[in-house]
Design a protein that fits this description.
This protein is an alpha/beta fold. The protein is 47% helix and 20% strand. It has five helices and five strands, in the order βαβααααβββ. The protein has helices at residues 13-28, 44-50, 53-65, 70-77, 81-93, and strands at 5-10, 38-41, 98-101, 107-110, 115-120. The strands form two sheets. It has a three-stranded parallel sheet with strand order 2-1-5. It has a two-stranded antiparallel ribbon with strand order 3-4. α1 (13-28) links the parallel β1 (5-10) and β2 (38-41). The longest helix has 16 residues, at 13-28.
Length: 122
């Protein structure tokens, strides 16, 4: 089984903007640009705020239990559905969860990777 990974990094805003400008310049010059998939935070505090213990438990439950809906996930975690739904929305916006609309009312969350790698620029 191939291990799928998602990269999480911490880079300051200036570094991110410089990397974006470099990529835009390469595209404009007709050069190939390396596609790098990942989620980046501007500092360690933002990272800690985003990936709390509850959210890490939620990611693990999605990966191992394959819940059919957010309601099902809340029952698995024994947490309030509103809090679970908010965490799912946040993690989806951060690119750490994919969701699929199953019915008009049910959304199933999915985690498509096996590991999270943390990279911190010094």
């Amino acid at each position: 089984m191939k291990v799928r990974k998602v990269k999480i990094g911490i880079k300051d805003v200036e570094t991110l903007l410089n990397e974006f400008a470099d990529a835009a310049g390469s595209i404009e010059a007709g050069e190939k640009v390396k596609h790098e998939r990942g989620v980046y935070f501007t500092n360690i505090q933002a990272f800690r705020k985003a990936l709390t213990q509850k959210r890490l438990e939620l990611l693990h439950a999605i990966k191992t239990e394959h819940p059919s809906s957010i309601n099902h996930l809340a029952r698995i975690l024994q947490r309030d559905i509103k809090n679970v739904a908010a965490d799912v929305r946040f993690l989806e916006q951060a690119g750490l969860i994919d969701t699929k609309k199953e019915t008009s009312k049910e959304i199933s969350p999915h985690v498509t990777y096996d590991k999270i790698l943390l990279e911190i620029a010094v």
